[in-house]
Specification:
The complex is a heterodimer of chains A (307) and B (271). By secondary structure, chain A is mostly helical. Chain A is 68% helix and 1% strand. In chain A, α1 crosses α14. Chain A is globular and about 70 Å long. Chain A starts with 15 loop residues before the first helix and ends with a helix. Chain B has 12 helices and no strands. In chain B, α3 crosses α7 and α9 packs antiparallel against α12. The longest helix of chain B has 35 residues. The chains are: A mainly alpha (307), B mainly alpha (271). The interface between A and B is large, with 82 and 83 residues.
């Protein structure tokens, strides 16, 4: 730290010297994001137009990768399905939408309960911490912890058979769409609860009393007062959940028994075969889809203003 | 949320004949011993150490850089808005894309370096040169793009509640900026700084997606664990799960304790 700007600190707050000073402090932080975020992103876009063979990348400008991804997508296959890429993107979107809906309802309900039904703030903190504790365990472990429950001979099937509800074990419990969505919800509802809870705690309680005095029913208060005031939290939570699910390949891999495809999974497989330009082209498309969703969501609220 | 986790802990103490599910066949530490001896070709111990080291370094960098950036953002920082948006973008960018980008970057760097070595005729160096991808280059960078946004957001929250009057008082008493920071600001933000460190470590400790393409030849523990889910079918994998969870909780316990200690010191000093 230099001593030149110290003596008369107050009045010179906006001098160029101080701005420079601030930038020296922010420089390492900025450097990390330039080196490991902005440059890599630029490279992905660049490489997505490159050519490649089995051994190396060939600098070029070609749209081959993009064509390869959507090859044969203009018509339906003979079984009446979409082509592989398109159906993968659709299924990834399907998972995002499902998980988003479920986590939104669950997260909102939990946050609502914590914010409005728990009276003492000590209890509130305690319950809140109780919600966050599992978050500190590795995702993979929380995923595989479902296996002994949902498996063919798992607890759920054993119990159901035990009480005589079913004769055969239910097969679709594990390594299915169901288990994938279940794991997602289990893993990421937290990302909904925290921001929604945060917005709810900022709501002035007198507004609720006012609504009550004005004769609003519980549902009316919820819909016309609480939901609009929690919009920021809901949007932030939604962005988190949707971007995570869109890019995920670990959860879908483990809980889908490596049988269900997702865009993230495709990218991962392509890189493991060193098909970097193809993977990059997929990443660019995925990025475009995610950005469109986020753009749509942020039209609804100014996030920077709310922080 | 606790149910499935609890099942894992219980099942990791299965007897030697036990399988992946209930019923339990005896109780033992058999699978933990198996784990210590290594599972086939996978060297769990080394992966464990690597994860631990990487987590430590990430923690250090996260604390240093976020506190510095947090301080910078309190002043007039032209271009600060752009930096903020980049930070948030990094937070919500699908991890696989960041990971792929960093992997590509280092592969291209490899190509460039090899070409350069060939051009200057340093053949021995060329033969020994493997890749620039590694634990403390690409993987460290990948982890920082994930931990730093959390660090910065915490710093924002901290400085929003921070009363600058204390600093002015220190300045009026003739303290240098460093003295002001060391004796006034740091004790006040101490507990949060510890919190940022904890975030840094635990986020790095569990990270898979960002590491996957950016780590090179070696693996961290979560990556090994992910790989094992499709190949290993014994409760040893549960034992591994239990071990990593215990480490997570130990780190959190220690840091929460430290934060409370710092908080108490602060109270003692102020009041």
């Amino acid at each position: 730290m230099s001593s030149t700007s110290t003596a008369t600190a107050g009045p010179v707050a906006d001098s160029p010297n101080r701005t420079l000073h601030a930038w020296w402090q922010a420089a390492p932080f900025t450097l990390v994001f330039v080196l490991f975020f902005l440059i890599p992103l630029a490279l992905i876009v660049m490489v997505s137009f490159w050519d490649f063979n089995e051994y190396e990348l060939l600098p070029a400008f070609t749209l081959r990768n993009y064509f390869a991804i959507f090859e044969g997508c203009s018509t339906l296959t003979e079984h009446g399905d979409f082509c592989v890429s398109l159906s993968t993107y659709l299924s990834t979107l399907k998972f995002s939408l499902l998980v988003w809906l479920i986590t939104l309802v669950l997260g909102f309900a939990v946050a609502y309960f914590l914010a409005f039904h728990v009276r003492s703030s000590g209890m509130q903190t305690a319950l809140f911490i109780l919600c966050t504790v599992p978050f500190w365990t590795s995702n993979v472990i929380r995923m595989i912890s479902w296996v002994p429950l949902l498996g063919r001979n798992g607890l759920v099937n054993q119990s159901l058979q035990g009480i005589g509800l079913i004769d055969q074990p239910i097969e679709w419990l594990l390594f299915s769409d169901f288990s994938v969505v279940l794991a997602f919800v289990h893993l990421y509802t937290m990302f909904m609860i925290v921001p929604i809870f945060n917005s709810m705690m900022r709501i002035d309680r007198s507004l609720l009393e006012a609504a009550n005095d004005a004769g609003a029913s519980g549902w009316q208060t919820l819909w016309n007062v609480i939901v609009p005031l929690c919009k920021t939290g809901i949007i932030i939570g939604s962005i988190f959940v949707i971007t995570i699910v869109m890019g995920d390949f670990v959860t879908i891999g483990v809980m889908g028994g490596q049988q269900i495809a997702s865009v993230g999974k495709i990218i991962q497989v392509q890189t493991s075969y060193l098909q970097f330009p193809l993977a990059a082209a997929n990443a660019v498309i995925l990025l475009a889809v995610v950005l469109m969703i986020i753009w749509g969501l942020t039209r609804l609220v100014d996030i920077r203003k709310e922080l | 949320m606790y149910g499935p986790m609890f099942v894992i802990f219980v099942l990791s103490f299965q007897g030697p004949e036990g399988g992946l599910t209930f019923p339990m066949r005896g109780a033992s530490l058999h699978w933990f011993r198996q784990l210590a001896e290594g599972l086939g070709t996978v060297d769990i111990g080394a992966a464990f150490l690597r994860s631990l080291m990487l987590g430590g370094v990430v923690m250090l960098f996260t604390v240093l850089l976020s506190v510095l950036a947090g301080l910078a953002f309190r002043k007039k920082l032209s271009g600060g808005n752009a930096l903020f948006y980049v930070t948030v973008a990094s937070l919500i960018m699908p991890s696989i894309i960041v990971s792929l980008g960093i992997g590509l970057q280092f592969r291209l760097l490899d190509g460039g370096l090899k070409w350069l070595l060939e051009a200057v005729g340093a053949t021995t160096t060329l033969e020994e040169y493997g890749t620039a991808l590694g634990l403390f280059t690409s993987a460290l960078g990948a982890h920082l793009t994930w931990t730093l946004p959390f660090g910065l957001l915490i710093m924002f929250a901290v400085f929003n509640r921070f009363n600058p009057a204390y600093e002015e008082a220190a300045r009026d008493l003739g303290a240098t900026p460093w003295q002001t920071f060391r004796h006034v600001v740091l004790p006040l933000i101490g507990p949060s700084v510890v919190g940022i460190g904890m975030f840094g470590f635990t986020l790095s400790w569990d990270e898979i997606a960002r590491t996957s393409q950016a780590i090179g030849d070696v693996n961290t523990l979560p990556l090994e664990l992910q790989g094992l889910t499709s190949t290993v079918t014994t409760p040893a994998i549960y034992a591994l799960g239990t071990v990593t969870t215990v480490v997570s909780f130990a780190v959190i316990g220690v840091t929460v304790g430290l934060a409370m200690l710092l908080g108490r010191q602060k109270k003692g000093r102020v009041g």
